[in-house]
Specification:
The radius of gyration is 20 Å and the shape is globular. The strands form 2 sheets. A 5-stranded mixed β-sheet has the order 2-4-5-7-6. It has a two-stranded antiparallel ribbon with strand order 1-3. The protein is of the alpha+beta class. The longest helix is centred in the N-terminal third of the chain and has 40 residues.
Length: about 270
C-alpha cells in the first residue's frame, strides 16, 4: 500500500513559476503577507501564553501559597496545555515558511552527516521507548545546496513518528542511498502501521490516525511540514505500510538542491 503518488500535489508557487512573470510576484507577495500575519499572530499569542505559564510556574513553585493535590494536578494540566499550544504555534509558522519555500541554503550539505546527527538526537527517546535505531548510510552523500536545519526538521519528524508508533523491542532502520543525481532516504519501522485509508490522509493538515490519536500525543502537522520542506527542496515524500506490520517513509531529493525557482534564499 502506498500514499498518494509523490509529486501529485503541485504547490501554487511552482505552478506560477512555470508562467514566470508578475503572477509569480503577486503570489509571492500574498504568501509573504500571510506569513507576516501568522508571525505577528503567533508572537502575540506566545506572549500571552508565556504570561499564563509564568503565573502557573509561580503557583507550582509554592510562591503564592501551598497547593493541595487537586490544585497541583489542575495546574499541571494547564502547564501541559499551554506548552502544547506554543508548540502548535511554532509548527504552524514552520509550515507557512516551508510552504512559501523560504529556505536558508548552504552549499555542499553532507546528508550522511545530517542523518547520523538526526539519529543521534533521536536516540535518547528511542532508548526510553526500548526501540533500537539503526543507520545504513554511505560515508558521505552531498547535496549541492540545501537548508540543513529544515531537512533535519523533516527527518526528525519522520524518525520521531517511527519511534512513537513502535513498540518496545521494535527496530527502526534509517537508510540513505544515492544515485548519480538523487539521494534516497527511507525510515522503516515495525510499529502499528497504517490502513489504506490512513495512508491517503497522513500528509493532510491536522490529520491523525484513529489509533494514533487514541493513545499517542501529537498535532497532525509534522508530516505536512516535512512534505512542504522536502518539496521546497524539489523532492518528494511518500509512505507505504501494511497495517500492523510497520510503515516505511521515503524521501527522494535531487542532489543538485532546490530548482532555481526564484524563491531559494528568501
Ligand atoms: N511511522 C508511522 N507509523 C504509523 N502511523 C504513522 C507513522 N507516521 C505517521 N503516522 C500517522 O500519520 C499521522 C500524522 O503524522 P504527523 O503529521 O507526524 O502527526 P503527529 O505525529 O502529530 O500525529 C499520525 O497521527 C499517524 O496516524
Ligand atoms: Mg509527527
Amino acid at each position: 500500500m502506498r500514499s498518494n503518488a509523490p509529486g501529485e500535489r503541485e504547490s501554487p508557487v511552482s505552478r506560477s513559476s512555470a508562467s514566470g512573470t508578475s503572477e509569480l510576484r503577486r503570489l509571492r507577495e500574498a504568501l509573504d503577507e500571510r506569513i507576516e500575519f501568522i508571525e505577528d499572530m503567533s508572537h502575540e499569542l506566545r506572549g500571552g501564553l508565556t504570561f499564563v505559564r509564568g503565573y502557573v510556574d509561580l503557583f507550582l513553585a509554592g510562591t503564592l501559597g501551598p497547593l493541595d493535590e487537586r490544585q497541583e494536578h489542575a495546574l499541571r494540566v494547564i502547564e501541559r496545555r499551554t506548552a502544547a499550544i506554543i508548540r502548535l504555534l511554532d509548527q504552524m509558522l514552520s509550515l507557512e515558511r516551508a510552504r512559501a519555500g523560504h529556505l536558508e541554503l548552504c552549499a555542499d550539505v553532507d546528508l550522511s552527516e545530517l542523518v547520523h546527527h538526526t539519529v543521534q538526537a533521536a536516540s535518547v527517546v528511542a532508548a526510553q521507548s526500548g526501540v533500537s535505531l539503526k543507520v545504513d548510510a554511505p560515508t558521505t552523500c552531498f547535496m549541492r545546496e540545501a537548508d540543513c536545519r529544515r531537512l533535519q526538521q523533516a527527518l526528525d519528524n519522520v524518525i520521531g513518528n517511527a519511534i512513537k508508533f513502535s513498540e518496545t523491542g521494535d527496530e527502526v532502520l534509517v537508510k540513505l542511498m544515492e544515485t548519480p543525481d538523487r539521494a534516497l532516504l527511507s525510515v522503516q519501522d515495525q510499529g502499528i502501521g497504517m490502513t489504506a485509508d490512513e495512508l491517503e490522509h497522513v500528509f493532510e493538515r491536522f490529520y491523525r490516525g484513529s489509533r494514533a490519536s487514541q493513545k499517542i500525543g501529537g498535532s497532525g502537522l509534522g508530516l505536512v511540514i516535512s512534505r512542504a520542506i522536502v518539496e521546497a527542496h524539489g523532492g518528494r515524500i511518500w509512505a507505504e505500510s501494511v497495517p500492523g506490520d510497520g510503515a516505511t517513509f521515503h524521501i527522494d531529493l535531487p542532489k543538485a538542491g532546490p530548482a532555481d525557482n526564484g524563491r531559494a534564499g528568501d
